Here is the input.
Amino acid sequence: MKLGVNIDHVATLRQVRYRSRRKVSPWAEPCLLDAVRAVEQAGAHGITIHLREDRRHIQDQDVWTARRLARLPLNLEMAASPEILRIALKVRPAEVCIVPERREEVTTEGGLDVVRAGTRLRRTVSALQEKGIVVSLFIAPDPAQIRAAAATGAEFIELHTGAFAEARNAAQQAKERTRLKRAAELAVALGLRVNAGHGIRYTNVGSILKVPHLETLNIGHSIVSRAVMVGLQQAVREMLQRMQSR
Ligand code: PXP
Here is the structure.
């Protein structure tokens, strides 16, 4: 199974300091390109970023930087909005995962409401595919959404693992995992390929591996959080060394 690392929260941390700048330097800390290189060197299989309509973390320039300089395939998460679609068609990432951003686009479980947005989504999917971009739809493990996703012509779905990740006890987690398993089986039977993401952590990834047919897990928050912890000692030591070296 492959790992796509979502580095949005590296940009979240950067934007805490640089939000007021109209244009952020590509070297502003923490540097997104350094994050791309670290992910690559660690052996991951893809870089994932989400260009949100409100630009709360990833900026337009980051998308271009990642597209030009990442050696791994770039998976761009985006809402199916005309503005972001225009950018995606110019940037041409290897893959686009269409995600909901507005309340009316979201199903009860947090995935894209493909059943409601069918026709509009189909146009977005084919516009992206015409540029050679592989398209994935981020949906809840719900049979109606999976059937609707297959009808759009998208190659992939990304199963929303949020309900699984937030399960309060082992029984609920097992129930959610069964839903993911059935969803993956239905998707494959309909000719779709299957990824998964949201809320996957070091402590629950083992359980996710039991879901059949998954190709890529997209993981962000947990990896970036862990990076802060495993890197903090070295960061403090390096600053102390500089302070002591004069
Ligand atoms: N997959 C998709 C489609 C997402 O939008 C996100 C970010 O919420 C993720 C995966 C990664 O989720 P997390 O940061 O919880 O690992």
Q: What stands out?
A: The longest strand covers residues 134-139. The two ends are 49 Å apart (CA to CA). The pocket of pyridoxine-5'-phosphate is lined by residues 6, 50, 77, 97, 99, 138, 158, 197-200, 218-222 (CB under 6 Å).
